[in-house]
Amino acid sequence: MDETQLIDKEEKLLIQRAYRELLKCIHSPLNDEDRENIRNAYELAVEAHAKQRRKSGEPYILHPIAVARICAEEIGLGPTAVVAALLHDVVEDTDVSLEDIYSKFGDRVAMIVDGLTKLDRSYDSDSPQAENFRKVLSTLVKDVRVVLIKMADRLHNMRTLGSMPRHKQLAIAAETNYIYAPLAHRLGLYNMKTEFQDLCMKITDQDSYQEIARKLQETKASRTAYIDKFIVPLTHELKEAGLNFRITGRPKSIHSIWNKIKSKEVSFEEIYDLFAVRIILDVPRRQEKQACWQVYSIVTDVYRPIPERLKDWVTTPKSNGYESLHTTVIGPDGRFVEVQIRTERMDEISERGYAAHWKYKGVSDAPDVYESWLDNVREILDNHETDAIEFLNDFKTNLFNEEVYVYTPAGDMKILPKGATALDFAFMIHTDLGLRCTAIKINNRLVPMGYRLQNGDQVGVQTSKNQKPNESWLKLVVTGKARSKIRTALREERKQQGAIGKETLERKLQQLKVELEPNADMLVKHFGFRSRLDLYNAITHEEVNLHELKKFKVDGQKLIPPSMDVVQETEKVVEPVHPTTFRKTTPPKLLINGEPADQYDYSLANCCNPVMGDDVFAFLSSSSGMKIHRTTCPNATNLMANYGYRVMKAEWVQAGSASFKVDLLVTGIDAGPGVIERLSQRISSTLGLNIRSFYIDGDEGFFEGKISLIVNNKDQIIQAIQALKTLDGVSSVTRVEST
Ligand code: MN
Q1: What are the DSSP calls for 520-552, one per residue?
Q2: What stretches in the chain show pLDDT beneath 50?
Q3: Residue 656: half-sphere exposure toward Cβ, Cα within 13 Å
Q4: Known catalytic residue: 270?
Q5: Which of the residues 262, 295, 296, 699 has an alpha carbon 20 to 30 A from that of 659?
Q6: Which of these, 389, 404, 322, 398, lies nearest to 356 by C-alpha position?
Q7: Distance from the alpha carbon of residue 382 to the mean position of ligand 1, in angstroms
Q8: Does any domain span residue 377?
Q9: Is 252 helix (H, G, I), strand (E, B) or coil?
Q10: Residue 297: phi, psi to the nearest 5?
Q11: Whose CA is closest to 49, among 91, 111, 108?
């Protein structure tokens, strides 16, 4: 009996229950036609996927139902999206064709399903993820729902990733981290972004994830008690003021706690803001701003605020639509507590993002943040010149970053991505202003054109009609718009310059009584250029010795170059730069794709220095063979996201006599000249480890040391860190993630 064919009675009930739950989750009102469409889509999908099962063994149809439910429940999408989500895998995986979908559900649904199918296909191929990302974004500008459903699909897959092989989990996690989490953030889906990040961390950094989860659990009771104590007087005052509100206190995400531990180099216990208190008001639209500030005033009457921590996204929403008033106050026992003040509408937008935004569209006269963002997306997509990787970088800098708010001399506010320069500002205002920019004043003081804008800067641009951009300008801008305009201008300039060189060449050839056309390609090759334009430009700038033409033989209309040995080598050969690798004397016991790694020419990546016992993966690099990275390596995400198909599973099998280099960063308060001695004493005598190098630096009572050790495995690193931490005067010991 073929078990994949069989869906038993119990499973049938399970499927029907999932479907009923889905219907309950649809928020938008449904008419009869909507109901019928959803029913038909469900039945078609059940039928089409009848023979499929997921890796976990459950009937496949449960997946599209779950995806549709995420669309309805967590993103707040309507019936069209629910229908498309139910059908999202049928064209790709079953006999149902796109024409079938079109004739049964119309062109909108067919278009969305088509977009989803194309996105899926691109993941099977060897095309780098950057190219896939361009596809994701092209569908985004056509109908945002394609990408929203794709994100729901990814979310459900991430939630149920357990049955996938490890290397696939890593590749999917990396791509999610690289593309989908930032996209979710950009589309205002905060809950989804947070969940993506937590799920990714759970895969790539299991130990830290579990540790934080455990500590959160352990401290839950005392945290709840504290939140209650904090809330009581607030609730009283807010009620007194006659406000309609609800108040919650919830822990921050594991990923964001982890980020803080790493970036601030503190322990879990030292993080003061493990949670945020949120006050959500129920007020009419017109009273929102006033009500939020009234609450702010009440909160800060009860608890003393820290003024620098006030963030007002009510007056100026973030460009992904986020609105909220954040402040940090000093609560009972002197603890810092972040308080977020917002209305029900703002809260819904912060959770459902784009979909909720549409619901309230037209109610506000504020500029449409998503529309202007989508315009930006279109602009970058239209710029076909950039290659895929550069395109992706453009996106990362331009569309996912936080922003900086600056002003024109007339006082108009402009929003640019964080990191944007003064020259970017000029191009943002107008292309001509950018191209003719000669100087820029910030708050009336001259600054370099590459000056990085700060919040509140007032920016004045000076121009001259004789100004022209040059190659170096490309380094002074970060926005896609400025870069593409500069490129276009430079290309235009090269064409004009090339025309001069071409004329010069034609004159020379006339003296030899031959035409340019039949000889042009031969000359390009002879002088070692890649294109005619390159050759003509070099001639203009007198970088080519045209006297050489006299040595050519003339045969009718054809020039024949002199014998090969006089041809000068013009092409520069660039030696690929190989990173120096640390090869072990005894190879460690490592398996790649389940087979002994010795058969591969592999080496340990020196960006993250993995050691025996670390969670690792193998990556086939294009220039230097197989590399073993730690899954927490800062480069890992980028590698896996862009070249997921080159990732292979790797695992340590047994401890051998292998030795690895590891770098530890030790900081502490200066304990006099004895500190080096005590550190090295502890390492070599107590732990019996070899020190490869030791570098220490310090002043003003503080020191920072970098110690390279030779260890056999990860346990020895943990022992070393613990042993060094207990030394007098040492305040932190961490393993260096990347060098
Ligand atoms: Mn799917």
Answers
A1: HHHHHHHTT-SSHHHHHHHHHTT-S-GGGGGGS
A2: 1-4, 124-125, 363, 564-586
A3: 12
A4: no
A5: 262
A6: 322
A7: 29
A8: yes
A9: coil
A10: -65, -40
A11: 91
pLDDT (tens digit per residue) in 717-731: 888 888 888 887 788
Residue 478 tokens read as 């970060």
Query: How far is the centre of ligand 1, averaged over its atoms, from the C-alpha of 520 (Å)?
Result: 54
On whether residue 283 sits in a domain, the answer given is yes
Residue 201 inside a domain? The answer is: no
Residues 664, 645 share a domain: no
Do 218 and 355 belong together in one domain?
Answer: yes
Instruction: Render pLDDT for 565-617 as a digit per residue (tens, 0 to 9).
Output: 433 433 333 333 333 333 334 455 788 877 777 777 788 887 888 888 888 88
> What's the pLDDT score for residue 568?
40
Task: Give strand pairing partners of 668.
Answer: 703, 730
DSSP conformational letter for 616: E
Give the chain's length. 739
Q: Give yes or no: residues 9 and 158 share one domain.
A: yes
393 is in which domain, residue-wise?
A: 371-486
In this structure, the answer to whether residues 677 and 643 fall within a common structural domain is no
Q: How far is the CA of 22 from the centre of ligand 1 (A)?
A: 16
CA gap 654, 656 in Å, rounded? 6
**How many Å lie between the centroid of ligand 1 and the Cα of residue 117?**
9
d(CA 187, CA 196): 14
Q: What is the CATH number of the domain that holds 303?
A: 3.30.460.10
Same domain assignment for residues 494 and 468: no
- Predicted confidence at residue 269, as pLDDT, reads 82
One domain, residues 30 and 50: yes
- Rounded Cα distance, 462 and 444, in Å: 11
Catalytic residue among 92, 273, 351, 548: 92
pTM of the model: 0.63
Same domain, 250 and 321: yes
| DSSP letter assigned to residue 598 | G
Q: How many structural domains does the chain have?
A: 6
- Co-location of 35 and 142 in the same domain: yes
* Closest listed residue to residue 441, CA positions, set 429, 423, 455: 423
Distance CA 661, CA 606 (A): 9
CA of 43 relative to ligand 1 center, distance in Å? 17
Q: List the beta strands (DSSP E) in 275-349.
A: 275-281, 304-305, 311-312, 325-330, 336-343
Query: Which residue among the candidates 58, 73, 93, 351 is catalytic per the annotation?
Result: 93
CA of 377 to the centre of ligand 1 (A): 25
Q: Which residues sit with Cβ closer than 5 angstroms to ligand 1, an ion?
A: 89, 153
